[in-house]
DNA sequence: ACTGGGGCTAACC
DNA sequence: GGGTTAGCCCCAG
């Protein structure tokens, strides 16, 4: 499992570990950096499978809305995530949202911010969702 | 093999 | 600004 190569989860963990302290990123970004394309959900899945004493800073991964996906569930993990982020200096606004433009992290950029890598993912066929 | 859901996201209203 | 719709594809039962 740890050494299993066929798991895309490992790639996700590898990316998440690279997230510097006091910085956050989105599931979609992690997925892309992990070479998973747009499987943001997979990132969430992979993170949910992490054990308690993991070295992976899963708390630094939030959703594209700048919020904690676990927050709505009010789960213990969600609380842990909030506390960890707060301790790292990542603060959310009154609405409980984190400014991705400020704390957003990307591998390529050496600077603090500068927009996200690419808004998110590119909808290859947005024509399909036209209604 | 099939079905249901998911720690998501972008577009639409 | 928030709620809904559609799409992605993987995981668990």
Write up this protein.
This protein is mainly α and 131 residues long. It has a single domain, classed as Winged helix-like DNA-binding domain superfamily/Winged helix DNA-binding domain (Arc Repressor Mutant, subunit A). 33% of the residues lie in helices and 3% in strands. It has five helices and two strands. The protein has a two-stranded parallel sheet with strand order 1-2. Helix 1 (8-18) crosses helix 3 (40-48) and helix 2 (27-33) crosses helix 3. The longest helix has 12 residues, at 76-87. Mean pLDDT is 77; it is low at 1-5 and 109-131. The chain binds a DNA duplex (13 and 13 nucleotides) through helix 2, helix 3, strand 2 and helix 4.
CATH architecture annotation name: Orthogonal Bundle
Give unreliable regions as ranges: 1-5, 109-131
The proportion of residues in beta strands is under 5%
- Superfamily at the CATH H level? Winged helix-like DNA-binding domain superfamily/Winged helix DNA-binding domain
General form: globular
In spatial order, strands of the major sheet run 1-2
How many runs of DSSP E, i.e. beta strands?
Answer: 2
The helix content, as a percent range, equals 25-40%
Question: Which structural class matches the secondary elements?
Answer: mainly alpha
Return Rg in Å.
Answer: 15 Å
Give the ordered list of helices and strands.
Answer: HEHHEHH
